[in-house]
């Protein structure tokens, strides 16, 4: 069998250009941790999850981690078997069939673009808060309101353009920046959360770890999907498996980041609830971390959590651009997407054209999101949509692992559990949660309006993503006549001639 590591494109009129193998475990940790964006998730997620399940965030984060860990073992096993920057798209297509495979790739790509769009708005909001602290409240008559979706988005898009340029010039330099930002933001986060844990006036309660205290099944399902979203991003380490020196480095980087995130999330959720009451958490929403800093410290120290949040948002935007462009590269190689996604920059060895296009699409989505004027409402809608499609993506990939390695049932109980049982149960849990939540949204109202309290609105975006994915799959099969829909397997790029981009982007 030919090599399953597609690391080269060949130009008709030039030498081979490789996706450069320059990354190790530390780089994988940096990409996975940055993409997970713990500081950003904590800053905006604690208020969002409190709105849904009250003070039960700590136990939901623990419960959500269990199926995510099972899915991580599935990713690691699949990556050993077939390292490919297309990850779930390639593995699901080869095992469950090309239609679910394409859908797995599509939903995670669209979810990443939505994430880029709303994280840009978060970044802009933080920049505007810092501007207010310096006394700058307006520019050219425009109020610099950090709660405004429009103003925050415009500022954040400037940052998105800058990090895209860095992602184009080389993934190695991008991971070095991400690692530096991570060290600063985690140091700040740990200091302030420890401070809150020690001095907080809210009494610690074991009821925070009681899932039966959640008001309803719908609230539990929505809270679990939101908690899964907290962990989303660790799998970015697998998107650069063709650029790591060893495929095993991707898995090690992903696992290290995943366990580090679990510790941070539980510690931060308890610390936030020690310092803030439930009404405070809900009221401050996406500004919960800056509010915590202001409660605990005077200036200039109170601004440190703001800087940490800004660094986290910048790192997560950059780390999301990288795997998204590489996922599209894998789809372009199979002709399920257009040839533009396969262009590798001759100088930087990165999918430069695809990276810039991803940024442009995210910019367009961010501009469209301005129709939701309140930033917190836009964030809740975006997080909910991403949570549902991530549950679908992870669920399909885990089931693909169980099906592909079903022969391990004959290799002893331990191997059967790790290769088949754990991935299958984890995948079914996430698919079941997503289906239950979708059904709840469908029946909770009889009309649609732009509100995070409206079930039809909350379900409309994930539904549109899935329908759009099926339509694009039909185009790939019947229009582009992609060989992926014959075999379901990703293409070996060593045996494929692809166009090389010879112009700087």
From TrEMBL:
Entry GO MF terms: transmembrane transporter activity
Pfam annotation, one family: AA_permease_2
- Is Membrane among this UniProt entry's keywords? yes
Q: Which GO terms describe its cellular component?
A: plasma membrane
User: Which residue ranges traverse the bilayer?
Assistant: 28-49, 55-78, 99-130, 150-169, 181-200, 212-234, 255-272, 306-329, 350-372, 378-405, 417-436, 456-476
InterPro entries reported in the protein's UniProt record:
AA/rel_permease1 (IPR002293), APC_superfamily (IPR050367)
Query: Mind telling me what this protein is named?
Result: Amino acid transporter
Task: Tell me what topology the record assigns in the membrane.
Answer: Multi-pass membrane protein
Which cellular compartments is it found in? Cell membrane
- Protein's UniProt keywords contain Membrane: yes
Q: Which domain of life is it from?
A: Bacteria
Q: Which UniProt keywords apply?
A: Cell membrane, Membrane, Transmembrane, Transmembrane helix
